[in-house]
Amino acid sequence: xxxxxxxxxxxxxxxxxxxxxxxxxxxxxxxxxxxxxxxxxxxxxxxxxxxxxxxxxxxxxxxxxxxxxxxxxxxxxxxxxxxxxxxxxxxxxxxxxxxxxxxxxxxxxxxxxxxxxxxxxxxxxxxxxxxxxxxxxxxxxxxxxxxxxxxxxxxxxxxxxxxxxxxxxxxxxxxxxxxxxxxxxxxxxxxxxxxxxxxxxxxxxxxxxxxxxxxxxxxxxxxxxxxxxxxxxxxxxxxxxxxxxxxxxxxxxxxxxxxxxxxxxxxxxxxxxxxxxxxxxxxxxxxxxxxxxxxxxxxxxxxxxxxxxxxxxxxxxxxxxxxxxxxxxxxxxxxxxxxxxxxxxxxxxxxxxxxxxxxxxxxxxxxxxxxxxxxxxxxxxxxxxxxxxxxxxxxxxxxxxxxxxxxxxxxxxxxxxxxxxxxxxxxxxxxxxxxxxxxxxxxxxxxxxxxxxxxxxxxxxxxxxxxxxxxxxxxxxxxxxxxxxxxxxxxxxxxxxxxxxxxxxxxxxxxxxxxxxxxxxxxxxxxxxxxxxxxxxxxxxxxxxxxxxxxxxxxxxxxxxxxxxxxxxxxxxxxxxxxxxxxxxxxxxxxxxxxxxxxxxxxxx
Amino acid sequence: xxxxxxxxxxxxxxxxxxxxxxxxxxxxxxxxxxxxxxxxxxxxxxxxxxxxxxxxxxxxxxxxxxxxxxxxxxxxxxxxxxxxxxxxxxxxxxxxxxxxxxxxxxxxxxxxxxxxxxxxxxxxxxxxxxxxxxxxxxxxxxxxxxxxxxxxxxxxxxxxxxxxxxxxxxxxxxxxxxxxxxxxxxxxxxxxxxxxxxxxxxxxxxxxxxxxxxxxxxxxxxxxxxxxxxxxxxxxxxxxxxxxxxxxxxxxxxxxxxxxxxxxxxxxxxxxxxxxxxxxxxxxxxxxxxxxxxxxxxxxxxxxxxxxxxxxxxxxxxxxxxxxxxxxxxxxxxxxxxxxxxxxxxxxx
Lengths: 605, 349
Fold this sequence. Notes:
By secondary structure, chain A is mainly alpha-helical. Chain A is built from 18 helices and 2 strands. By secondary structure, chain B is α+β, with helices and mostly antiparallel strands.
């Protein structure tokens, strides 16, 4: 530890209250402080703000395509003013509809819920909660953000090319994504998508390696692995998942670039497109799906685990009770991490996969329900006989558990291959993954922002706006996605631009309109959050105590506005686990912080 | 103009909400922040339990409204699909009970154990018995679901009965093509390089293969009721998917990799019109894998009819070979039958 401190000392910028240390003060320019910052806290805010911008764009896309789904027979002339030939005559064109759907998925899955979620909170909380002055490599950390920024620029530019952005779905299955003749979105837009994802993967790997190294090597004295808060465990497993699975997607993306531009046949065989007989033979379109889902499935846990970790922490803090079954929580995170690598083919039950092989994927998929059940029951027991404070963060954490239950249970339908035959690629799937991975993880993200905002900016967010945000979002999320299960049970396929020509699917017109209206309202409520967020950074109520939520973890031992280096003077030593709530402390509080030595009258943890 | 007006109203609403929120913050400072916090706590505790109650009512109402619109009240139109319907009811039963119990516990605990003056939370860090309980009970339920699931999965994906008829279905942007094997019961070979649009050989059938000479190429699929059918599925350009919602069947169509599925239709189209109460009912083939801009309109139709009607329909179809090479068609030439047979010899296309 000691040499790490020496390395960082030059960069340590002490809190302004401590004028005595000002001679150490490293001269910071605007560029080094806010742009190419090496401070993990600033980098985390960069990820968060970039993520919020992407979330607004991705959310807006869903509002636009919901207009088409809710009102397939109406025209919106103002859309033509905004979008030109993509909305000719005020009607969203099918190519554009598919581009919107594809970009909505790509943006939300990768740019918001991967980079915006673990990029923000792994960066912010790992050093603060394990007691480190910064990441193992602040430089790689800075590069991680700027590779993400580069990926964002490339993806954004793909929205403006003449032939449009990628439009083959966020899963970009070839041959559709490989053949420009098959879809206009598979022209230059697809190359930009692949380049952007390659940059994104580099960013994710740089970040992930840093998180793993920091958690393993830079914990403060006394912070054994089993004294880490569950947030850190979750970020650690998330990083492991990313480091082991993202390279596989990179290989798939590069092979697809080769197929597109260099005439190789990794994924192409026996194809006649637009009247032309292609020379490619011997490739396998299904191979790409294996490569994609080998990342793609761990990816949903990359999104979900940080939300689980933060919700666990917030539920415990605000129940004023230790998290129930700490070791079981860590064990179930570990089990989910291992199983996440062994279930990818459950996305491929109807590709012609060997049924015998499919049977193993059914078994392994449904096994995930066991650690998930453990987590749910442990969260419920954490609430039991607590003394609960409904902060906005706590409400979102409770909402997370509710959504995780609802969406997790429908996973049992889809993971069972026989039932998946009927439900595959229907609205049932949309309902399932939006609830369990989309909305639930967003709830984890919001819970994290509300809970750690005081630590990030030294101010509180507005409570009234936060409560409105929560109630509109949870009610809206259920109103949008719950009825979609019924559309799925009716076999309504996903990714359809218009259902009115289908005798089998046209009876849900009214429901589709209702869902569209609710999704516009919910989107507006998210804008309230954005306003609240940015307003509160500068104008929010100031934090006046070091530990506003009365939590036990180390980030609340730092100054209200910690400088680069986090702690003034020595890093605190850890003496106990992070969940000593519902205990009598010496000063009459109901919790004991991690850096308080274990008294003689206490049993050791 | 109308749009600008709506936009202005939306912005006004935002400003009003924002001002109220700001004002409430000042009020809370005046009233005492601790007091406001406790009030908020009570309000949100109440709202959580209200959300639970209204939510459960909503779940019930939603089911009343929409369950009849799903395919399940009318039952599966294929014998094999009944297994899937059974799986669905079993899974809804198991997960439904867990859903209701856990959601009630979640919101009820949140309400019941909300912060109260002078109360202290119970220090309860772990309990091995409880944790073992909720590891093993879900494991038992899941075992039941996996066992039923796999038994049905292997039945559905296993080999079709010997009396199954074979129909080939090929997807391309954005339509389906069917091929029937004709009297010999064997589909002729195909080679995608033989694709030739001007000649009409859009499936790339190899007419040097003698088995292809009596094959039928149609755009609609006709099936006899009660007889198993095996679909041989292919695609020409991108991945498509043969989605047969009423039969509860689905299988991807992948270029270069043939796939299959089989099922036994239970009801004719006419019977389904009565069963569903929809006089326009048709069995539709929906493409269930995104395949390009007109993916949503890639529709096929299956007519299920009585075996004798099916036989008649088959007899009325002309082999593709004769439509592509009319001069080889014996019904159009005046020569005697031996010469007609000679004309049926393979030719290069």
